[in-house]
Write a structure and sequence with these properties.
Helices cover 32% and strands 37% of the residues. By secondary structure, it is α+β, with helices and mostly antiparallel strands. The protein is globular and about 35 Å long.
């Protein structure tokens, strides 16, 4: 049974849920738009995974138009910076909306 999406979500709660889901990389789903941006910006799937697993929230969480909590995660590593916009399909998957 799926968990009910909370009415309020703090950045810490969002990050805890993201870290929990991201520990299984199969639960990180990269949608078409994000895949296009990955190619344009030469960002690998592994870089996206690490951004989701270890990044810090720079914006959000807020409810998007689909009723999912969404955040921007920023990661700086090895001289490279990237941001992933991630929607939480509550307690089941993380949807990477775009990368930059």
């Amino acid at each position: 049974m799926a968990e009910i999406v909370p009415f309020q979500l703090t950045p810490k709660q969002a990050l805890d849920m993201i870290r929990s889901l991201a520990s299984d990389t199969d639960k990180i789903v990269i949608v078409g738009h994000a895949q296009t941006r990955q190619k344009q910006r030469r960002i690998s799937r592994r870089q996206v995974e690490l951004c989701v697993q270890r990044g810090t929230i720079t914006e959000g969480p807020f409810l998007n138009t689909f009723g999912n909590w969404q955040v921007n995660l920023f990661r700086h590593a090895a001289g490279e910076e990237m941001t992933c916009t991630v929607a939480i399909e509550w307690a089941s998957h993380l949807i990477v909306v775009t990368v930059f």
